[in-house]
Amino acid sequence: MMEALQRALRPLSQPPAPPGWNHALMTELIGEIERRPAAVLIGLRDANEPHMIFTVRTDHLSSHAGQVAFPGGSADPTDADALTTALRESEEEIGLHPSHVTPLGYLDCFETISGFCITPVVARIANQAQFRPAPDEVAEVFEVPLTFFLEPSNLKRYQMDYRGRRREMVEFHYQGHRIWGATAAILQHLLQKMEQA
């Protein structure tokens, strides 16, 4: 399983560059506005059975309140690269110390309705890592076995309207958590890459 995941990734020496793999669709929906760089950490706890790390955003945030997300956020001007952004944001949001993170590689960039171009960084998280959610940003940290996402019946498809256009969407439901939007789309892209690896 981890071997297939590793084969699905871009190597650390070859980080992806914009545009995102969904650029054509996003251009239809939001036009050619400049995409702001961001990065997320797709962390897999290094246990007997790999578990993926997710956050639940606090309800009072101005954007994506209450949604499930990967740790991550906007790039700072001082960030050297997407890996730096993902590690910094993960430490700020959930108290994940960089010494407990072993980067494995990248997924292709992904563009969002809100005008970001996200670089997903996939990494192994040490089993002993402790999470301390920042209460102003993260309400909860939870883990999902990677095998859950590998079961095709757990992928749900639906359609939604956005500015008069029909969009095909995917989501997952795990123990009361709804994983949807950009997080689910990035996950689906990873699963497709793993199948092809």
TrEMBL record:
Highest taxon above the source species: Bacteria
Residue ranges that the Swiss-Prot or TrEMBL entry lists as coiled coil: none
Co-factor(s): Mn(2+); Mg(2+)
Keyword Transmembrane helix among UniProt keywords: no
One Pfam entry name: NUDIX
Domain (Nudix hydrolase): residue spans on this chain: 34-168
Keywords annotated in UniProt: Hydrolase, Magnesium, Manganese, Metal-binding
Gene3D superfamilies: Nucleoside Triphosphate Pyrophosphohydrolase
Statement: the UniProt record of this protein carries the keyword Cell wall biogenesis/degradation: no
NCBIfam families per record: PRK10707.1
Protein name as annotated: Nudix hydrolase domain-containing protein
Protein species of origin: Dyella acidisoli
